[in-house]
Amino acid sequence: MKENASTMGNAGQFTNRFKALYNDYSILFVALGLFLILSLFVPNFFKVSNLTNVLRQVSMVSIVAVGMFFCLVGGGIDLSAGAAVGFTGIFFADLIVNRGVNSFVAILLCLILGAVLGLLNGVLTSYGKLMPFVATVGTMSIAEGLALLWTNSYPVLNLPPEIEFIGRGYLWNIPFPLYIVAVVYIVAYFITEKTRYGRFLYASGGNSEASYLSGINVKRIRMFSYVICSITVAIAAVILCGRLDSAQPANGKDWGFKAITACVLGGTSMTGGKGKVLGVLLGAIFVGMLSNGMTLVNINSNLQTVANGVVLVVAVGIDVYRSSKQNKS
Questions:
Q1: Global pTM?
Q2: Average pLDDT of the chain?
Q3: Do 204 and 75 touch, CB atoms closer than 8 A?
Q4: Which CATH number fits domain 58-320: 3.40.1350, 2.40.128, 1.10.3470, 3.20.20?
Q5: Would you state the torsion angle of the CA atoms of residues 96, 251, 188, 281, taken in this order, to the nearest 10 degrees?
């Protein structure tokens, strides 16, 4: 009897752990299903060269997505992220090519510019009390205009070899951008799971009023979430410049929406206070695999845009359904 009870107890623990895994990382099973389908039915998808290409392309969107994750968890959203990729990239490349700035100094200045853009978004939403949607659409327009004005709408070409290595290089037969992704996600995991700021961020997004009454500076917490988001945007812009050996104002224009899609697919709630860093990475991989699969089967690029929009709407719909169900319970 004791053995039977122990077996049933172990089975119950396994079931509970599986349910917890499914609730937090349901995108894992969806991504594995998509990977299996594409491997079986799409020619050339399972080739090492193609999988490497998928991971390299995913690297940049996944970095923007983890920054967007901070905004969403804190109860905000940054619709200017895609435009900021183009502006910070133009700024970065122009410093090196046209103004003779050292490459590593230019990287630092690019990250500082990203932080300034994020600070602007954070101040407008947290202290200016503008709706995140309105504030970040405004800064999106500003970033797009500045990117065009900075070089009079011309691209910046011929970046030095060290920048090309960041986007195209290999280290021990692994694309260098993947190392950057690993570092960014480890830092993001540490911040969200192991620091006081991370706990306050979840609390502020989950219930801002209760957090304020508990002594949490909700405005400051949310402001810094935008700063973090824009810094990740700047990192992705540097990688993209190295990948393309150029910078153009329209680079990464749709990455903000892809980042939101990756976050929501990965279990991050649009209402704030819920999400996991690893889920964001899995969501970005799903988006990358879906895009690559559609390209390999020659689906029209316009239809791909429609498909990405459908995925975002479905993901947000599922999130709204889950949130309403939890509120009822």
A1: 0.90
A2: 87
A3: yes
A4: 1.10.3470
A5: -140
